[in-house]
Design goal:
The complex is a heterodimer.
Chain A (H helix, E strand, L loop, with lengths): L1 H44 L14 E7 L6 H9 L6 E8 L5 H9 L1 E3 L13 E7 L5 E6 L4 H11 L4 E5 L4 E2 L3 H11 L3 E10 L4 E3 L2 E4 L6 H21 L12 E5 H7 L9 H16 L5 E12 L5 H21 L10 H16 L1 H18 L4 H28 L7 H34 L16 E2 L5
Parallel strand pairs in A: 1-2, 1-6, 2-5, 8-12, 9-13
Antiparallel strand pairs in A: 3-4, 4-5, 6-11, 7-12, 8-11, 9-10
Helix pairs in contact in A: 1-6, 1-11, 1-12, 6-12, 6-13, 8-9, 9-10, 9-13, 11-12, 11-13, 12-13
Chain B lengths: L1 H59 L17 H12 L5 H12 L2 H6 L1 H4 L3 H13 L6 H8 L4 H14 L1 H9 L9 H9 L3 H14 L2 H14 L5 H8 L6 H10 L6 H7 L5 H14 L5 H7 L5 H13 L5 H10 L3 H16 L5
Helix pairs in contact in B: 1-2, 1-3, 2-6, 6-8, 7-8, 8-9, 8-10, 9-11, 10-12, 11-12, 12-14, 14-16, 15-16, 16-18, 17-18, 18-20, 19-20
The chains are: A alpha/beta, B mainly alpha.
Chain lengths: ~475, ~350
């Protein structure tokens, strides 16, 4: 009995150490992020230079892959067309939608077939027809055979004529100056190959004709908790990795890339659910291990892109399963990057961190909870040990979440009302009491699906779109 | 058993207290921060309300009027006052500028800020100080501005360069043309700075610098010249093209900015370059100023291996003076290269839609 108890105690200590290490790494990332955010804010505030010389801004192609997006596609495209950027080309790729996405586009923008001489740098599913809008020559619509999001993005890259392209989700809403802000790292550092933008949750906000009019908290607690998650992921996670040039993911919802670098890397990986992360990992591998050239993958912390978060458990579960499969797909596709002597911060910090805390993490977390409960119920584990485990697992998680919120308050402060801050503090606490554990279970399930190598589609995203208003005033 | 329960309870209570205290601390911190920020904003608003009428008063004064006297201010308020001053200054021209300068001189703003150009740790304060000195045409600040031009912060160095240009364009041009090779100054920002100055004054200096510098730097400067005004000094471009050895960047820059038939042999020669950007720029130049016999070269370029060169050739052929509709129709159906026919159709479609190439 004593031997069993000692064994149980040792395992329990292992779990506690895991949670402490996780929080420690997050806190270190937080530290880096705080310094970089403060420097960024100071730079932005003191950017009293004359505005960028418009004609010299590099041309950008905005690529919008769309699959069965008839409900939101027109307002999304309008939002893209209203972007405040001088050299802009918008390419909507209709990925063989089975609904009337293409018909909606035809109706709204009066499309004419166009004899586009596009390049076939990246192999893709066949293009049926390319259209250009009658009165908007910089709007292209590509109708193609269904091949998935990555394939649609690749078609967009082939058709694009600009040195930079920006991948945007069809349901995202951009701020008018989004492109100007996200393009800055390309102007400031010629080695930049990709820049990610910060994504925020649009639920509760007011969007009118594709433009964000007012930010407010959503009514659903599930969406409020996701606001905390996004703050933690973008303000701390990505912003912490960026100064180390070890950012492993740029969200598919909004990111700008150097076209030639992506084409040389082979484009997005078709049939992948984590195509956004896989591309970034591949770019790191290419520049660090194969080409050994200086490069930068940066992140702009300004909130520039708004997207809808799921408000029901079913959709949320599908999304999280997909994210977990995508993460594991991306990491497992490039194992050489892990602890490679030439890999620098990516190989020695970011990749192992992602693998241990994001890849295998859910397994350790769920096992930890189940093990503690069973052992405590059997009497193999003392109440104190169980509580210490809970304090490490839950308490430190709360601390990190609250820190992210404090950081947001000190920088962008998107939610102006004091009541909103109090609600978000509560959400940061509640997130760790049930939601996080549930999320770990879903991620574990995602790991299982990935291990079985079973082909799973994108799942259905139940969009409410209640925040999208077709031109109604407040 | 009871003892055990007590211990568990005490751990639960302690953990809850610690956690609650931690969260309460962070919440308090957030609210204190918010309070401080809103207080700061209120103070700034009050300061603006006090100073903006004084500043606008100076703008609208007649020459013989004195205007209301500036209110007293604390040393800590100088940056905010300078910021208001800059904002008003940037909106006005002529006499109003002079009057605003006089006001800043009377209240000793420049003296307060000049020494902060390189000594302040706050980036925003430094840029405010630099800008104020620049707008004040403060010659005493030039040595500080010269050292600020070498600052590791791009924002500070560019602000300092701009201020130097405003104070004395010669000194500014000197700093620009002796731009440290390891420093990256985006051409977009430099172009804006240069556009603020009288073109007639800076163009000769820039042309001179183009000729005096090595290939790499000359290429950068040439692009800058072109961003300010179309390159008209054909002789200088021709002289550049005659250098014994030319780097890829300089060849590309020459072909990109040139608009003279003098450079046609140079362009024809570089149509065979292995660099696609050079070929593309050569096609553009031939398309713009080429002789009728150059059409054959452009038609050959329609079948180039690179899409951008083909695209440039397509646009050049369509706009070529000696090409009529019948010839275009002939090319569209009879050109032996399928890619050439495709790109021509594409370029024709874009031209009909009025699309300008990116």
């Amino acid at each position: 009995m004593n031997d069993t108890n000692t064994w149980v105690m040792n395992v329990e200590i292992g779990f506690v150490i895991y949670f402490i290490l996780l929080s420690l790494f997050y806190t270190i990332l937080n530290g880096i992020s705080v310094v970089s955010l403060m420097a960024y804010m100071s730079r932005v505030r003191s950017l009293a230079l004359p505005k960028s010389f418009q004609p010299l801004l590099p041309p950008v192609s905005v690529i919008v892959p769309a699959y069965n997006e008839s409900a939101t596609i027109v307002s999304s495209v309008k939002s893209m067309l209203q972007l405040d950027y001088p050299n802009l080309e918008v390419i909507v790729v209709n990925d063989g939608s089975s609904d009337d996405t293409l018909a909606m586009l035809h109706q709204a923008f009066k499309l004419d077939p166009f004899a586009e001489a596009y390049r076939n740098h990246i192999p893709t599913k066949p293009i049926k027809q390319i259209y250009r809008a009658h009165n908007l020559p910089h709007l292209k619509v590509v109708d193609k055979v269904n091949g998935g999001k990555a394939d649609a993005l690749n078609v967009g890259i082939n058709v694009s004529q600009s040195p930079l392209f920006c991948g945007v989700d069809a349901d995202s809403v951009l701020q008018r100056d989004s492109l100007k802000r996200i393009i800055m790292p390309f102007l400031d550092n010629p080695e930049t190959v990709a820049v990610g933008g910060s994504i925020r949750i649009a639920n509760g906000c007011q969007v009118e004709d594709g433009l964000l009019r007012k930010t407010a908290l959503p009514k659903s607690w599930l969406a409020r908790i996701q606001i905390i998650e996004y703050l933690r992921a973008f303000l701390f996670g990505r912003n912490g990795w960026s100064p180390l040039n070890a950012l492993l993911i740029i969200s598919g919802a909004f990111g700008v890339f150097r076209r030639d670098a992506v084409v040389a890397a082979g484009g997005y990986l078709a049939n992948s659910v984590g195509e956004d992360m896989e591309l970034i990992v591949r770019l790191h591998k290419r520049f660090r291990l194969e080409q050994q050239e200086p490069y930068r993958i940066s992140f702009v912390p300004d909130p520039v892109c708004w997207t809808e978060a799921p408000e029901d458990f079913r959709t949320l579960k599908n999304q999280r399963l997909r994210w977990q499969r995508g993460l594991l797909e991306a990491l497992s596709a490039h194992p050489r990057l892990c602890f490679h002597p030439r890999g620098g911060t990516v190989s020695w910090f970011a990749y192992p961190f992602m693998l241990v805390f994001e890849g295998i993490g859910p397994l350790l977390e769920v096992t930890g909870y189940v093990f503690t409960l069973i052992m405590y119920a059997n009497g193999n584990l003392s109440g104190e040990a169980a509580l210490i485990f809970l304090a490490a697992a839950v308490g430190l998680g709360m601390f990190v979440s609250v820190l992210a919120l404090v950081m947001e308050e000190m920088t962008f402060r998107m939610y102006k009302r004091k009541r909103a801050v109090a609600i978000l503090f509560l959400a940061a606490i509640l997130e760790n009491l049930g939601y996080r554990q549930l999320n770990s279970c879903w991620r574990l399930l995602g790991t299982w699906q990935w291990l079985r190598r079973k082909q799973h589609g994108w799942g259905t995203m139940q969009r409410k779109g209640s925040w999208q208003q077709p031109g109604t005033k407040d | 058993m009871l003892e055990n329960t007590d211990r568990i309870l005490s751990i639960v209570v302690s953990a809850t207290i610690v956690l609650t205290a931690l969260v309460a601390l962070l919440l308090t911190f957030t609210y204190v921060f918010r309070f401080r920020e809103s207080r700061q904003q209120r103070l700034e608003k009050e300061l603006r309300e006090r100073w903006l009428p004084v500043l606008f008063d100076r703008v609208s004064l007649k020459d013989n009027e004195l205007g209301r006297s500036p209110p007293p201010f604390k040393k800590s308020e100088r940056y905010m006052i300078a910021l208001c001053w800059i904002q008003v200054f940037e909106q006005v021209r002529g006499r109003s500028e002079k009057r605003l300068r006089k006001l800043a001189k009377d209240i000793g703003l420049v003296e307060l800020l000049r020494r902060k150009i390189n000594s302040s740790k706050n980036l925003q304060h430094r840029t405010i100080a630099i800008q104020t000195c620049g707008y004040m045409r403060d010659k005493l600040a030039t040595s500080d501005l010269h050292s600020a031009c070498n600052d590791s912060h791009t924002v500070v160095s560019l602000c300092a360069l701009r201020a130097l240009m405003l104070i004395d364009s010669k000194q500014g041009m000197h700093a620009l043309t002796h731009w440290p090779r390891d420093r990256y100054w985006p051409k977009e920002r430099l172009a804006v700075i240069l556009q603020e100055l009288p073109t007639a004054e800076i163009l000769p200096m820039l042309y001179q610098a183009v000729l005096e510098n090595d290939d790499e730097f000359a290429a950068k400067l040439l692009i800058l010249v072109d961003s300010i005004a179309p390159v008209t000094d054909e002789e200088i471009i021709f002289q550049l093209s005659q250098r014994d050895t030319l780097t890829t960047n300089l060849i590309q820059a020459i072909l990109q900015v040139a608009n003279s038939p003098l450079l046609l042999p140079f362009a024809r020669h570089h149509l065979a370059s292995s660099n696609r950007e050079i070929r593309s720029a050569a096609v553009r130049l031939i398309g713009a100023v080429g002789d009728p016999e150059d059409l054959a070269l452009l038609e050959a370029a329609l079948g180039d291996a690179d899409w951008f060169v083909r695209y440039q050739a397509g646009r050049a052929v369509i706009q070529f003076p000696s090409v009529d509709l019948a010839h275009l129709q002939h090319l569209l159906t009879e050109h032996p290269d399928r890619f050439a026919r495709d790109i021509l159709r594409h370029a024709l479609g874009e031209q009909q839609q009025g699309v300008q190439p990116a």
